[in-house]
Structure formats: structure tokens, C-alpha cells
Design goal:
The complex is a heterodimer of chains A (about 350) and B (about 300).
Chain A: E1 11-22, E2 25-37, E3 42-46, H1 53-61, E4 69-76, E5 79-80, H2 86-92, E6 97-100, H3 104-107, H4 114-126, H5 130-143, H6 149-154, H7 162-174, E7 180-184, H8 192-209, E8 212-217, H9 220-224, E9 229-234, E10 237-243, H10 244-249, H11 254-261, E11 311-312, E12 322-323
Parallel strand pairs in A: 3-8, 3-9, 6-7, 7-8
Antiparallel strand pairs in A: 1-2, 1-4, 4-5, 9-10, 10-12, 11-12
Helix pairs in contact in A: 4-5, 4-7
Chain B: H1 2-29, H2 43-52, H3 59-71, H4 86-121, H5 126-140, H6 143-157, H7 171-201, H8 204-211, H9 216-254, H10 260-268, H11 272-300
Helix pairs in contact in B: 1-11, 4-5, 4-7, 4-9, 5-7, 6-7, 6-9, 7-9, 8-9, 9-10, 9-11, 10-11
Classes of the chains: A alpha/beta (about 350), B mainly alpha (about 300).
Chain lengths: ~350, ~300
Amino acid sequence: MSPEPRHQALLSVRGLGVFRPGPGGEVAALRDIDLDLQPQECLGIVGESGCGKTQLLHALMGLQSGNVRLAGSVRFRGEELLGASAQRLALVRGRRLALVFQDALSALNPYLRIATQMTEGARAQLGLSRRAAWQRAATLLESLQIDAPARRLRQYPHELSGGMRQRVLIAMALMCEPDVLLLDEPTTALDVTVQAQVLAVLRELRARSGVAMIFVTHDLGVLAAIADRVAVMYAGRIVEQAAAAHLYATPRHPYTAGLLHSMPRLDTPLDTRLSTIPGQPPRSGATSTGCAFAPRCPLAHERCTQLPVLRCADNQFPANGTVACHYDGPAQGLREIWP
Amino acid sequence: MARFLLRRLLSALPTLLVIATLAFALLHLTPGGPFDSDRTLVAQIQRAIEARYHLDEPVWRQYLRYLNDLAHGDLGPSFTYRDTSVNQIIAQGLPIDLAIGGCAIGFALLVGGAIGLGAASRPGSLRDRLPMTLAMIGISVPSFVIAPLLILIFAMRLHWLPSGDWVGGSWRHLLLPSLALALPYTAFIARIVRASALDVMGNAHIRTARAKGLGDTAVLLRHALRPTLMPLVSYLGPALASVLTGSIVIEQVFGLPGVGRFFIGGALNRDYTLVMGLTLLYGALIIVGNFVVDLCYAWLDPRVRLNR
């Protein structure tokens, strides 16, 4: 790895927007996304289904479908990726940024052996020989605790279990030793034991190789186990971003507080109903000029018809994170707003 | 694999038996016989003819006799074409049908496949809309309209190719019939391939391939081609059979001595053995077609197991 000034982010996203054509003009799936990923950092992104998490990851890699328009800037080590030529992108994909897809069964090609799918990227990108790529694939599978990797490599995706397929996808993304690993709900489809296994594998991977990660999920509990920093997304925007420990302890956005409040805890009495955030997230394409969360927010106020901008959550400690909410009262107050 | 082949072969036998039985029953239920005609023959001659073809025997005996001949690979003598066996008729006519049918399917696959892929590469463009509109017309217009049109253009006006006058063996005589036969299939295949390719390109595993940094060619050839072909394979089995039956019309228009015109003539003349023989032939071809489809499926898709 080339030496880098500490302040320069590995991946830097500014004003990223994803717009798709809709019946009544363009619809924003994602808007005004600002993110920085430092080397070796694990950034968690959390949000409800449909809030644009997957869109974000695809946009970072330039994998959006054909009729989608992107705006803003995505820089990897200072190099602009948005609007880069297909040749430039091909050099970055898999090698600099690698994506672990959601839904491992459909993300793998059912017609090709695991070996073919795992090795083709490394052979094209790094010019590895068939044998060397095969060897690397086997080693990676083994390091992800897959038994009999040689046999697995000769098998087809449908012959593996769900947990194995997910780990194959992770191993596949690691084939070219990428600088950034983008993980799209890598544990969502797995049962809890396999989920814990995969998380352990990822943590071990970070400790060993120092690969930076963006970990997308809707499960705050999973993020607590791995993320250094967490960004909370709602309706295509980032509404809060803070160091993980800080965010869990003192959420600054009512939505974050609601998400944390709705997590079941081991020490809640058994007969308590799980708490929820009432209402539905806005349908994609719904245009509101104000805060998208206002209709569900117990603190909604007249000022919420104005769009809140991301600001420092705590003016005395700017490093503590940013939040997009007009509420500027004490953070402790947010604990009590959810029933 | 060997067990699968054997099993399929054995399971084809009852199917053929049912076809033979149904054909036999239907023909014998149809009023009129092969030697009924406007002129009344002398009773003695009539009886002599019927005895020669065993028509004087009870029906069940005729049925068993027919099955016995079948088991020995003999489809029996034709009733209408004296001194000619059904086997001979098929041996003479089938090669022509196979030639036209093979050319037609080959043309349809190559041209239809290319048009479909081209259309799918730019959905909504002129390259997509124009061929797809033409394809819709190609599917809708029956071959007995297309064939005379082709004759009109290429034989009567341009004098490039003969319109008929089959005298045996010239490939130029087979071009127009093959083309006429191929057009509807070309159109259908173009539409199937287009739809399938568009569907496949939206698949998650194609995005995975692109995320690895593979070039467009590698994505297309290694990841998109095979799944695109799957619906085509299942269409091809029945298509192979219907190309051969469909050639009946084409043969008539171009005056080709294929099997098809014997089929029609045989049905009109109550030529029992000829009709039964050709029905069995078509049945066997459909069985073979479907069998080939199954093999292709297993060859293309690792999830398909042949042992079941």
C-alpha cells in the first residue's frame, strides 16, 4: 500500500445523488450524500428497506442501471470515479473497491463453477495464472472457515448452503486484495449462528489485512459488533453520522433514537410489546421540501417544513458527528420522545 | 447418463404404441375404406384385393398384425401406391423434408438470434423497434401467404431462383422453400432471444460480473449467453417437430416430393398404412426433439440432473 497523508480520506463522497426517471419527471433515490472513509476504517450505514443503501453502494462502483443519472462526486484516493471511462472503472472495480452483494444465491451465476467465478476477476485484473488464482481462491475460502475448499471450488452455487454462498461472495470480493470492501447486507439472509460466524470472519479480516469497509445493513445490532462509525440513512439522505459508540450512547436524531429504542434488549421484561416507529417511510418519488421524517417525528414543529442541513451535532466537539435535524435541545431529551 | 438414455428410450415405446393405436382406431372408425370408389368393382375382384391387404380379417387381427409388422420395423405396404411400401415412401421423401427443415431451423437460429441480440443491446431504439415490428408480422403471416410471395418476387420477377420443377437434387430448388419455412421461426426466435437477453442482463449475477471489473465481452459471453439460450432451447424441441409438419404446406406450394404431400393424399384415400406410418414418424420426431431438448438442458444448466 502506498503511504498516505492521514488526513486524506481513502474514499470521499460529496453531494452524491441518484436520480431515476419516473412518470412525473426525475425521482431522487439518493440525495446530497457526503461520506468519508478513512483507511482501515469500518463505516456502517443503517436504514430501513428502500432508503437507498444499496443504491449508494452501486453508485460508488458505477454499477447503477442504464437509465439512472448520477450527480456529485465520488473520489477514490483523489481520483474521480463518477463519469470515469469504462476502462478506468474496470481497473477500480474488484481491485480497489470490491462489493459483496446482498442475496448470495442470485448474485452468483448458477451456470458456472465457484472456481470460475472466484478466479475470473483476479485473472483479468492481476493477470494471475489459472493455477495461482485457484490457489488463492482455495486459501481465501479456507481462511473464511469453509471446509474442503478444493471440493467447494469444483461445485456450483446451488450445491452450497446459504452461509457458504455468502462467504464465497466475501472471498470472491477479496480475491484482488481490494482497498475498500463494500458489504451489502452480508449477514441479513443468514441465520444467527452463521451471522455471528461471518461477523467474526470479517472482524478477523480487518485485524489481519486492515481493509477499509462500508458495511450496509438495517440491523444496528450487527453494526455495533463491527463498525467504527455509523451513518443513519432515511429516505435517500444521511440524517445522522457519528462514531459508533457515540451514536449508540447519545443519538442526536429522533429517527436514530427511535431505531435504538425499537431494538429488543435482553433485560426488557418478556411481556413488553416491541416498540416501533409509527407510520411508513415516504414512498420513493414522494417530493417533500421539508424534513422527510417530520410526518413520523414526535418532535415535528413548524420549522420542520424547512429541509434541515447536516450540521455538527455538538458545536463544542465537532468530531462527535453530524446530524440533520432542527432540534437543538439536550441530547438526553431524545431518549424520552418514544413511548 | 447411460441409465437415463436407456430409460428415455424405453419410455418412448409406450408413447409410440398409444400413437399407433389411436391412429389405427381413428382410421378404421372413419367411414369409407381404401378401395371404395365410385365405380363398383366386380365382387370377386373386390374380395381378392381385400384379402391381399388382409382387410377381410376381423379388426383386432388386423391390429395385431400391424403391431407385429411394426415390431419388425415394417410399416406395411401402401394401399394407394401399388408395389410401394411405406418405408420406401419415407426413405424417399424424408431426406427432402429434413434438408428444408434443417436449413430453415439453421437460418432461423442464426438470423433470429442475431436480430434478437441486436435488439436487446439497444432496447427502444430503431434497431429494436423495426425488427420487432417486422417479427410480429412474420409470426402473424401464415406460410401459405409467405411462400407465394417469395415465388412472386424471387422466381417470377427477379428470376433468381426456380419456383418449383423439382427434378431431383439441386440445392437451388431448396432455397426458397427453406426461406419460406424459416421466416416465422426466425421472427419467433428473434423475439424470444430479445426478451430473454433483456431479462438476463437485469439479473443480479450480471451485476456481480461487472463488479469484478470484467469487460463487456467477458460479461456477455461468459455470464449472459448461456442463460439467454435457455428459453430458446425449450422452444426448439417442439419447433423441430413443427418445422417438419409445417413443411407440408411448403411442399405443396413448391411441388416438392417430400413426405407431407403423401400424408394428405394418404388421408384422403384412406391409405391406412401410409397415414399410420407417417403419424408414427411425426410422433417419433417429436419424441426425439424433446429428448434432445432435455439433453441440451442438462448440458447447459448444472442444476438439471438427468438421473431422476
